[in-house]
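Reopening this ticket.

The earlier resolution said the output was attached, but the attachment link was broken on my side. Pasting everything inline this time so it's all in one place.
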Amino acid sequence: MEEDRRCAIRWQIALPVRYRGLGKHKEGSCHTQDISTMGARLAMVEKCHPGDRLNMVLDVSGSDSGPVCVEADIVWQKEAGELNEECNYMAGVIFRKIRDCHKNDILDYVSTNFPEIYKRKWWEGIK
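Inline output:
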């Protein structure tokens, strides 16, 4: 079994995402299945490959600074299966060189809009 390399707490929150492939001219929209300050699991329609790089815009509505723009690498992608009709693939991404202010925007969004999930995860630890 593949070793879990997550190093940040992830919150199971659906967040709208727009993306554009770097080096490949693909554009689309998807949403997060979970998110942390270091990466996310995305529910996607389009097939990508590990190593693909995306420019992403995370819609953290209500954030004073606006949307979070970040570059990310696809770490893995697999078919979503029959149970998930809204997307064809699940993909894990790691954020590249995410600025501290953007990490804070994500934390503020989660703590403001999902306070129970935010608190519960801090007490449970990294999962």
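Reporter confirms the inline version is readable. The first helix runs from residue 100 to 113. Strands lie at 16-22, 27-35, 39-44, 53-58, 68-79, 89-96.
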